[in-house]
């Protein structure tokens, strides 16, 4: 007589849910900064004041960063799919690529801001620019560290359900980082 | 010597401090949150009392040497009550009570411990910053910049700790509750905590954004705008006024509903209505948009339709909740007996104060009355935060046996609660009248800064100060009751251990 093994109860996705709440907090932080930035900018422009000096903000570095992060969103989705398929090799490659793209974005931004010629105390606009972009750099750096830890776990051979949740949680955070940068790209680099 | 003796000698049981520092037990964390929070509430109340003394004679500076110093204590009073006091104390209850109500255990206990200690260190830095002539800026710009930076950094740690704790509690409710328990089945404390924590995770990051802007602008060079000494408080003040303070009262409403249900032995009828009403109360408390510092000239945000409508909409919601409470009391009055439980009395007073606070909030939003910036705002703050303190106390008393152990002192608790309630009513009612007579919220140490020099508010300020004194007295009684409760519980635990050893 064939015995039926009861299915194991589905583990609540606590990591993903906690990550969603945490990421939501981070988004509210940036939401607050963006609201202040666009509000003050609108007031300044309405009064005919100059927001950034002519030519201070260039489009190319922001565009390059956006492209880099857009690619990283694709590699992150690849990592999630690979982990779901228990494909360790592809998961490792995808996570490593995502982390490298994140590091590249940080590197490009730091290089650009070393060269920008717009000191942080030049104006309220410059202060806000540094705070918003700096906060986003911290967000990306945290994401890179998170991916590094996941990579180490994958190298250690852990590909359990919990690990899948860890990758999904990290992916949620990473997508949020990309989304935040897309606002920075449009609102600061393009609209200036 | 036996092997057991050797093991016992080499592995002594941890001291209370060691246990508190290293533990991830929700009860221990709850005690740290609760003790730290209520101590901050007491310190904040003392700061408020000192400001009350100074307001007695606006012709001269008696307690403080300058308006800047008075402002530091005035702002410290509000920060200590909200971010260092009531919110952490609520988090203490949420850490231990909510998981039990959900039928599970606290998820991410190590993260919860990290949150608790991050908050505590941040609170210490914030208080040190205030005491070192820093605080959140001064109108005259005479504070110490380094100390102000320390205060801001402490505030960021406080916000970080509270956010992390909120995430742990919310995840516990959403993902860690017992199988088959829907959100609609949750007791009101858990439900209102979920709603409030959602609002906290929406508002506290915005406060962090304000704080980071001020900190970056303050450091290293003359501040441009955000970090200017006279501008920092203005940017952060939205967290300590209408409507953001209402979210402090939300879990208190949940506590009151649960406490009264237990006391009367009656489950609330129209439970779904109460669930919706409490959720609406929470979402109407979202105050991050009401940042007057960034007002566009000519269109103050407090006079925008959204702000005014929200101020009025919360009143019927609060009345609906009060109706639910009254209905429970009406149906279960026969079960209360001649001596209702102390926590039920205090929780009921807390709900009444919340309702009065929302009415005052609505009145002060009426533009033609021109009450914005007057002492009416202070009255609104005192009513709501006072209600929150009462509710937190009721919660700790109600679940005290679970958190600390047996040995509660209901008589002392009721005495302290009534003194506190009396003080809140005296202080805020007189501030309300002073505000209607044009006294400013922050009066400064001169008659000119107080608002209308001919308003004749001196006698009212005296009554308000006596109210502040009653608040401090009530809190001291509560601290004594808490200390006695803890001591009794510890001695009971010690006796149990000795009995087991003897056996």
Features:
heterodimer; A: 192 residues; Four Helix Bundle (Hemerythrin (Met), subunit A); 5 helices; B: 503 residues; mainly alpha; Cytochrome C Oxidase, Chain A; 2 domains; 0% strand; globular
Q: Which helices and strands occur, and which strands form pairs?
A:
The complex is a heterodimer of chains A (192) and B (503).
Chain A: H1 14-46, H2 59-84, H3 88-114, H4 124-155, H5 161-190
Chain B: H1 3-10, H2 16-22, H3 26-56, H4 67-101, H5 109-131, H6 145-175, H7 188-218, H8 232-236, H9 246-264, H10 271-284, H11 305-336, H12 342-364, H13 375-398, H14 400-403, H15 410-436, H16 447-450, H17 458-502
Could you describe the 3D structure shown?
Chain A is built from 5 helices and no strands. Chain A is elongated, with a radius of gyration of 20 Å. Helix content of chain A is 77%, strand content 0%. Chain B is mostly helical and 503 residues long. In chain B, 72% of the residues lie in helices and 0% in strands. In chain B, helix 4 runs parallel beside helix 13. The longest helix of chain B is centred in the last third of the chain and has 45 residues. Chain B is globular and about 70 Å long. Classes of the chains: A mainly alpha (192), B mainly alpha (503). At the A-B interface, helix 1 and helix 4 of A face helix 6 and helix 7 of B.
